[in-house]
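Archive entry. Fields below.
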Amino acid sequence: MQSFQEIVFKLKQHWAAQGCIVQEPYDVEVGAGTMCPETFLRVLGPQPYRVAYVQPSRRPADGRYGDNPNRLFKHSQLQVILKPSPDDVIEQYLGSLEAIGIDLRKHDIKFEEDNWEAPTLGAWGVGWQVMLDGLEITQFTYFQQCGGIDLELVPAELTYGLERIAAFLQVRDSVYDIEWVKGFTYRDVRYRDELQYSVYNFEMADIPTLWRLFELHEGEAARLLKLYDPKSPEKHRFPLLPAYDQVLKCSNLFNTLDSRGAISVTERVGVIQRVRKIAVGVAQAWVDQQQPVSAEVAR
Amino acid sequence: MSLPLLVEIGTEEIPDWMIPGALESLHLLFEKTAIPHETVRLDATPRRLVLRADGLVERQADTEERVLGPAKSAPAPAVAGFARKQGVRPEDLGIESTPKGDYYCFLKKVAGRRTKDLLSEQLPGMILQIYFPKSMYWTGKGGPRFIRPIRWLVALLGDEVVPFELASVRSGAHTAGHRRLGTRKILVTVADYEQRLRDNYVILSAEERRNKISRELAAVRIKKDPALLETLVYITEYPTPITGSFDPQFLDLPEEVLVTVMRHHQKYFSVEASDGKLAPQFVAVMNIDADPEGFVRSGNERVLRARFNDARFFWETDQKKKLADRKQDLAHVTFQAKLGSYLEKTERTMKLVKELGGNAQAVRAAELAKCDLTTELVKEFTELQGVVGGLYARVQGEPELVWQAIYDHYKPESMEDSIPRNLTGQIVALADKLDTLQGCFQAGLIPTGSRDPFALRRAAQGVVKILVEGHLETPLLNFAGADPQLKSFFEERVKFYFKDIRGYKYDEVNAAMAAGWSNLVDLEARLARIQALRASADFEPLAASFKRIRNILEQAQFAGGGSIDTTLLEPGPEQSLYEEYRRIAGQPIENVISRLRPKVDLFFDKILVNAPDPRVRQNRLTLLSTILQEFSTIADFSEIVTNF
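PREDICTED_STRUCTURE:
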């Protein structure tokens, strides 16, 4: 039997062999691998890029105190970006399933329509959920827009739900029974996270504090964006990546406040707009930053 | 020589529900190319749209084009110049007479083009014009758009490839088999195409796939589900059903929940036991040929077990907080950004229920109707909203009428769906829909063309259906008449319902509605009367006369009012019409139509309404207007379209 970590190793190796840079997880909390700069910013602009990384993804509202066998506050996504998407992208993807020991001749694979949209990021794409014997194992998306910008090269994004795949391969009914590595189950490694974050997110997070943090991070992002000067010959030095971290902080705080039931109806749309505004601001500045300042403008 | 055509657009998996529409669109586009052919056949699987036609010619027919030259009176060098340009001698030119005079002309023969060349030019544009509700680009910004990336193209006219390029894909003679069971690159001819696909585990014909599923399912007693069957037909290239089972202890959960999990989330058919109850089995349809080792079956069984466990977990968790205690939580659930929360909607709906004459139970049902939106079960299975609330209300001891009203209050969800089963539910459903309509129209969220994000047409259609089929005499316009846009929106829905759903003729509907449509039960009764009346030989002539009366009154700008001065009536047809009117006034039109019609006809035959004496004229107009009004209470018959 393959352990959880062996499955992860094999997927990474498969994608490394397809020319992907294998990155480590991003070190700011995110709700999905898509939000990492390696996806959100790299898909912008004309440079080809291929990357794969595992991203722990936080969904405060999905926490179940470690009680539910299939639902997690923090699950692990393997995120793959192929920009531009190669013609044989589906074959490459199916190859990754074979790499983890799934004999495609003996299993049923279906591609069912599932389009993706992230309003706080001004991003959307079309694609499928990939079903393996009735189990959704991957989101497959052709990005069309990100940060409100039409993409020059269309990337394929593959997002694997690693816990589900491991439970499938190890024939476990609960993710907590997955063998992470011999001698340690998923429960041994992650149960405390699930319990304690559920308690915090649903019961103890201090709402006024979270709101203050939200405003501080939002303010910092807005302050930086205001200072960005597309005409500056020094613009390549400008800290857009740190500005984007502030966006991620806001997004996670928004999710936490939401799970805490702290966002009223009237506020909700407005808060999504606020996050979107700074996300789009960073995306636009980022696209500009990739282009050299023309001599004329610099003068 | 007659040639067959084969065009296959090979793509990545197309959403199943878009495929039939795409084929229809492809068919229309092909007909528009005006390339003569005999038969056309369209087929599709998730990975290919296929057009096959027969009876194309190798070369289009030659045509003649008439080229006009200089006038007949033109000097010789001009004529010679024209002839030279056409490549003939001046004496070969003809003369064409036009309204402007005689001109030299030349009949130019235009050779018909090769069909292959025409197809090469037209196929790329035709393919890209196929309509899809949502499309994408994949080759880069500004590139072609299609539903999913195009990966191969087959285009054969007879034995020859029709060459073209689309999205960097060159047309050819190679198709692709089933993703896992077939070969990636298969050389085909028009003749062996379908068989080659079959050899590679692709059943091209949707009907054949449908039959394969049905045939292999014959031994299992599944719950009939034609929509699910269509989905499965268009989500597979080689469908094979398998039967799995689940632990009978899950049958403790409500059947609605189990069926929804199987149908909507897993695309499984549910299975009935011989007593009609749910059996602990399901049927999944694979996109491969067999499952000899049972991997697919056991995989699907595990997924279903996890799903059912989730559902049980949600069901039990939700019980910890009663529906009634969830009402305040609705403040955090958005109904619509401009219209506030579901708590506000609930308060408004309760008020509307009272205005609609609902009793305390109906008000209670309205109060609880939206509370299930905060339950885990509905968050997971949104399509069960309402149903779940009803089930919880029942478990929590709400009276039967209340829980049933909650359960049914989204009904009817389509024109085929039934209305809520009892009056309490009908009133709650009406109030819920009317509130949505009133609110959205006030906030300017009005449907335009095909855009109707809040499904307001369905809501209004539901209101109409409930009022008519529930026999509720509620005056609709008291609730929808104040806003002119909402009123005309409803007018359209009422017309649609009686015409398209109930089959009344459009002019009957117009006529009946012109006499009022606030009470839809009354409207339905009047429509039935008009339909019956129409069979009478007197009906259409009388309707024509009524139209004539209406026109006369309009032309005379008759303002109404006044009474008939009997002393001004001319003896004969006018007097006799008046007397007939006096005799039959107040009776239903069915009883008197045969007596009224000849009098009206005679009147128009013999009497000039536009009499020289203004008093006589005015009196005649008053007589006609009085008769028109008397018999227009069930309908404005002048709206009836007649042959007279």
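CURATOR_NOTE: Residues 66 and 194 of chain A are 5 Å apart (CA to CA).
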